[in-house]
Task: inverse folding
């Protein structure tokens, strides 16, 4: 894993064994969303239930409720703090420490804010004024709760972690989640991630990635968790876009 992480900027897809912890989280999601799901056999597994498409598109308040309930849940915390996740990070870092920000994400048809353009995670942490976030360089373990395919997953640009920290624009309701230099995207280097539930990848804080764009009005929901750990001794050496560096200085002065 460490060789792929260093060379490509991301690992291959792998599975994290969570057993009842994952089932508990899936059940919580199902309990909140079942009124929106198409009619189905109640005897199928909860893993299959939360793969089903919606019969009606949930409104923004329903999406917000799900986000709030899951992000504050014991079930999510159990996964983030699990021994299985930590053991995987130990294949990357010598001394993995949990990062402050680990987020559950729900991709709903009517929520434009859940579609993130090409960006680097360090683009967000770089401008933070929170000392618990600055200069930590966490690697992200993207954990799939109900599976992801070529239409609703994420994409990465392999080798992009070896370039620089690009200038990121501020996107309303998201933050600094869109780079200026879209012309640098090489289609030949795009990697589309497809997973089954409980499968993951870990990617570098400078790896360019995005949500796969979706034009369909309705599609099945996709659930994932951004788990983040860092190592105090992991200090990547990289160049920083001049404009973005200037924005950092202005941010500090203000």
Result:
């Amino acid at each position: 894993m460490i060789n792929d992480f260093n060379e490509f900027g991301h690992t291959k897809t792998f599975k994290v064994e969570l057993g009842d912890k994952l089932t508990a989280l899936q059940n919580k999601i199902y309990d909140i969303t079942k009124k929106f799901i198409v009619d189905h056999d109640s005897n199928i597994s909860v893993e299959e239930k939360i793969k089903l498409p919606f019969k009606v598109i949930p409104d923004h308040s329903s999406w917000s409720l799900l986000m709030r309930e899951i992000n504050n849940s014991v079930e999510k915390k159990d996964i983030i703090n699990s021994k299985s996740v930590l053991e995987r990070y130990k294949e990357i870092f010598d001394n993995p420490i949990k990062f402050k920000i680990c987020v559950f994400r729900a991709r709903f048809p009517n929520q434009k804010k859940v579609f993130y353009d090409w960006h680097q995670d360090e683009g967000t942490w770089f401008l933070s004024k929170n000392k618990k976030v600055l200069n930590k360089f966490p690697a992200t373990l993207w954990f799939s709760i109900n599976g992801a395919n070529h239409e609703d997953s994420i994409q990465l640009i392999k080798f992009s972690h070896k370039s620089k920290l690009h200038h990121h624009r501020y996107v309303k309701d998201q933050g600094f989640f869109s780079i200026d230099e879209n012309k640098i995207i090489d289609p030949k280097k795009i990697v589309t991630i497809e997973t089954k539930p409980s499968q993951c990848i870990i990617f570098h804080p400078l790896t360019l990635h995005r949500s796969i764009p979706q034009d369909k009005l309705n599609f099945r929901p996709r659930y994932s968790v951004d788990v983040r750990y860092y190592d105090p001794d992991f200090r990547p050496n990289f160049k920083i876009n001049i404009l973005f560096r200037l924005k950092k200085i202005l941010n500090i002065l203000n």
Notes: Helices lie at 2-8, 20-33, 46-49, 60-71, 74-80, 83-89, 121-125, 242-253. The chain has a mean pLDDT of 92.
